[in-house]
Amino acid sequence: MQITTATKLVGLIGHPVAHSLSPVLHNSVYQSLGLDMVYHAFDVTPDKLETAIDGFLALGFLGFNVTIPYKEKVYNILESRDAEAQIIGAVNTVKIENGILKGYNTDGQGFIMHMKNLGYSFYGKDVVILGAGGAARAIGIYIAKEGAASIRIVNRTFHKADILAGVINDYMERRIAKASSDILSNADFIINTTSLGMWPDIESNPLKGLTLSKHSVVCDIVYNPRHTAMLKYARQQGCKTCDGVGMLIGQAVRAIEIWLEYSLPKNIWDKMNQEIGKVIF
Ligand SMILES: NC(=O)c1ccc[n+]([C@@H]2O[C@H](COP(=O)([O-])OP(=O)(O)OC[C@H]3O[C@@H](n4cnc5c(N)ncnc54)[C@H](OP(=O)(O)O)[C@@H]3O)[C@@H](O)[C@H]2O)c1
Taking a C-beta distance cutoff of 8 angstroms, is the pair 222, 193 a contact? Predict the structure, then answer.
C-alpha cells in the first residue's frame, strides 16, 4: 500500500503494545477493501496519556483503539460515550469527529457478532459467565440485550460477580443475572472471560475436573493460544466450542465500522481469520 498525505490515520494506545495483533488485523482489512488508511500501535506511558490523545486530535486521526491499562482512564477523559460504554465504564474504541472524542466499547458487540456468524443465538438461553472483569461486563451486557433467559456469573472474587449481576439487572430493569458458584447446571453456554489459560499459563483450565453436558456450548475469549486447555477439555467431553479469535476479529470489525460509519462485508471475517491464523495457533 502507498501512504500519501490523504491516507487516514488510526491507531492503538496501550502499555505495553508490542504483543498486539491489532495492526496486523486492521491493516489487512484496509488492504483487502482498498481503504486508504493505516493503523499503528503506540506504546504510551501513563504520564503521556493525555498528551498522546491531544496528539491524535491535532494530527487529524479518525479515531483510535484503547487497550490495557487505559480502557477506564480514557473513558474518564472523554467528552461523550455511547450508552453501552457508559454501563461498562470502559472504552476500547474512540471516534474523533469535529474535534470531539466519542467512546465505545466494541468487546461485547464483537463477541455477539462472532456468535451470530457461527449461527448461535442467546435468546431464551441459560448462560454461565466465568469471570467478572472488564470483558465479562462487556459480554454480559450484550448477552442480556440479546434476550438471554438467565446469566450466572461465577468468579474467584464472589462480590465482584455480585456487583456485575447488579449492573446487568439494573440495565435490563429485571432480574436475569446472579452471582453463583454453580458452573454447570442447565447451561446452554459457558463462557470463560477470566485470563486463566492465557499464555504463558497455558495449562490452566477453569472447568478442570467437571463433567460437562454435551449440550453446553463452551466459549473461551482467551485467544493466545487459540486452542486453550479449557476448549480441548470441552471438546473431549463432546461439547461444541468457540475460541477467542472470533471475538478479537469482531471487536476490530465493529471499531472500523464505527470509524467509517458503514458495515463491512461478511467475507472480511475470513480474510482476518486467515491473517490471524499465521500468528496464532
Ligand atoms: N478475544 C478478545 O477479543 C478479548 C477481548 C478482551 C479481553 N480478552 C481476554 O479476556 C481475559 C480477561 O480480560 P479482562 O479485560 O476482563 O481482564 P480483567 O478485567 O483483569 O478481569 C480478569 C478476570 O479474570 C479473573 N482471574 C484472573 N486470574 C485468575 C485466577 N488465577 N483464577 C481465577 N480467576 C482469575 C479475575 O477474577 P477476580 O475478580 O477474582 O480478580 C477477573 O474476573 C484476558 O485473557 C484478555 O486477554 C479477550
Answer: no
Q: What's 16's DSSP letter?
A: S
- Give the pLDDT band of residue 1 (cuts 50, 70, 90): confident
By most ligand atoms within 8 Å of CB, the mutation choice from 129, 154, 194, 208 for ligand 1 is 194
pTM over 0.85: yes
User: Using omega within 30 degrees of 0 as the cis cutoff, is the peptide bond preceding 23 cis?
Assistant: no
pLDDT of residue 210: 93
> Looking at the domain assignment, is residue 35 inside a domain?
yes
End-to-end Cα distance, the chain:
27
Please report whether residue 91 resides in a domain.
yes
Contacts of 111 (CB under 8 A, 6+ apart): 138, 139, 142, 221, 246, 247, 250, 251
Residue type, 220: D
Domains in the chain, number: 2
What atom of ligand 1 comes closest to residue 221's alpha carbon?
1
